[in-house]
User: What shape does this take?
Amino acid sequence: MTTRFFGAPVKRNEDRKLLTGQALFVDDVELPGMLHVAFLRSQAAHGRIKSIDTSRALQRAGVVAVYTADDYGAYWQPGPLLVQPPPIAGSVFNPRTQVPLARDKVRYAGEPLAVIVAESRYLAEDALDDIDVELEPLAAVVDLEAALISSSALVHDDLNSNVAAQVHQAKGDYRKAAAGAHLVLKRRFHYEHGISSPIETRGVVAQWDARGAQMTIWDTTQAPVFIRNGLAAMLGLGERQVRVIAPFVGGGFGPKIMMFYPEEVALPWISMRLNRPVKWIEDRLEHFVATTHERGQIHDAEIALTADGRILGVKDIFLHDTGAYNPYGLTVPINSQCTLLGPYVIPAYDSSFTAVFTNLPIVTPYRGAGRQHGVFVIERLLDLAACELDIDRAEIRRRNLIPPDAFPFNNEIIYQDFAPLTYDSGNYEPVLTKALDAIGYRRFLTEEQPKLREEGRCVGIGIACYVEGTGIGPYEGAKVQVQTNGKVSVATGIGTQGQGHFTSFAQIVADQLGVAPSDVDIVTGDTDQFYWGAGTFASRGAVVAGNAVSEASQAVRRKALKLAADAFECAEEDLVVADGKVSIVGVPGKFIRLGELAQRANPMRGAVKPGTEPGLESTQYFGPPSGSTANGVHAAIIEVDPLTFELKVLKYVVVHDCGTVINPMILEGQIHGGVAQGIGNAFYEKLSFDDQGQLLNASLADYLLPTALEVPRMELDHTVTPSPLNPLGIKGAGEAGAIPVGPLFAQAIEDALQLTARKVELLEIPLSPSRLFELTRQEGA
Ligand code: MCN
Assistant: This one.
């Protein structure tokens, strides 16, 4: 089969709807008799609930109901913990999930205490002031290290410490490696809290149909099937009685897959109880305090090397802030632990972490999902070691790259998909070389930088490498169906938040069935359209759902060929599928359109042949044996204003290998978006809490997202090392842009600041002008 569309920069099918306002988002859902919901959220980060008096609020005009934990009693159980910890011997794991409305205790500022249902959102919000809450304040656990001191307050009274989990993984003998090393370099690294900030905040509409005993939920979730299954269990319904629709979703980036958010559980329950549709749309302030966060970690890491810069071993002990609850298991810290290994041969690795409960919002994956932290640590260690050993920064990386003949490369530790972290394929050296050539590394260091320094300009260069686990299981499925009008409809169980699935999946189908991508209609995120699936996370859509779509469209193609061969009484080999029809090769005018074949596949007379099914359609599933590993190198030249510490990115290069590429234009968009978020995380975005656990910058005026002015033009290039783990050879790409930006910025800024004779080591993320100002004025700087 020739591929016309797979690999081509096909324009996105979904954009017409999005650009003309035709795309349906959760807030567009308007239902007759719909009520609106507002949540009363705890002002305090930690406190014991003495009483909640809702009587005054209930008297307000337009208020229909007010609920607290007393109303739902035992009915709402804590959200089921769907993400279990990997089976790593000796691990400690203390799972704690929240109930939708706090009972007995609040554990973070923003945790829901009560919910008001009213005729409008305005009335519901106004009535929040009339709920009287008596709370006994408790000391808030905010500082990660202080949380582990025995005298510290307990976030969960039934535990005897704030330890949420402890995991140790190792390979080789680090102690021996360090003993025989020429250099052992130790540093402490900090990574601060951040938030994903999608354009569309979260939202839920729930509609209980008492007559049909059916619950329909429109939800901004990234995992509609999980939500359907969990809600059915919580509401005492069968799965078939619950339909979850994730329509167009304006960005998810990970946090929209928390299972379960209180609002996701509360709204269906309220709708059932009042027998009316209800709506809640998160406002931006709620997003800051009630949607999950990421990033808080402290690493004490060391690297052992030979005199010529070969890595002998790495040791890392880190603390991970999991917030008040840990419904998402250990995905984030396990990713940090695994991703630290990067594209390098590291013979000995000793890594342990403690996940810590604090009185801060819950931490779950956000684009990169902990991988940034690991990459930050190893890349910074390598830079500092290169400096100590007087080896070029690119050269030290090159010397340690895993050679191409070493794949599949088993890292001997367990990854988040419970399998040993094995890199399926890769060819790392050409990626580094391309990136260095594209940024003009040598020329910059030998010619341009000295000249710029003579002119008094602080300009530095950075390079950062990473390997990213993508495309994990368990599985996804797809139903591909040719309709009688010749158009093809496809349904999968994953949701879409802007990744371009409506186009890239259509390209896969279009090649198999000889139609145009615009004739393929993709439905994602509707559990009535496709019953099974896991969701959109871990850059798995292209690998897992993409291959399922491919398998299903190949099955449909085979069926179309068979039907046409029967109709023409010819051999299948004599037929070709193209231009929406099946034709006999070399016999002009002898063809049957796909739509007609779809009609024939559903005969009204006679019989369907034994062993065949009606309809020109097929449902297939694909589950990869383990994740596929993408890799890349980012390089940047950055100018720092020595007075204001404002940055100007003069050049930004990404070279990336995500196996075979379905749509290079979508892929570039994915990388651009990731880099933009990475720049925010590296330099602008920091959630600041006071020692009472109060978020001090809960608005987009104070929490600075990079705008188009701060995001540079990027030069992108690819190499292609197909994955042997899926027939299409794909590796994921959705998070790649975000992962290495932190160490890249730190390195380039450090390099730039050398001119000022204020030598600083940048060991924390995010940096900012004010933080650089402080650091460069510290003693010794
Ligand atoms: N793609 C491709 N060729 C490849 C790999 C990917 O053409 N070799 C295309 C895919 O077909 C798909 C897109 O790139 O259209 C992303 O694919 P993939 O890497 O499989 O990622 P997912 O589909 O699983 O999306 C999730 C991923 C993650 S984990 C986060 S976080 C993230 C991201 O995607 N969130 C996003 N990108 C986002 N983009 C937008 N606009 N909004 C988000 O919320």
In short: Residues 541-568 form the longest helix (28 residues). The mean pLDDT is 94. The radius of gyration is 28 Å. The pocket of pterin cytosine dinucleotide is lined by residues 251-254, 367, 497-501, 504, 536-543, 546, 658-659, 661-663, 666-667, 670, 673, 730-735 (CB under 6 Å).
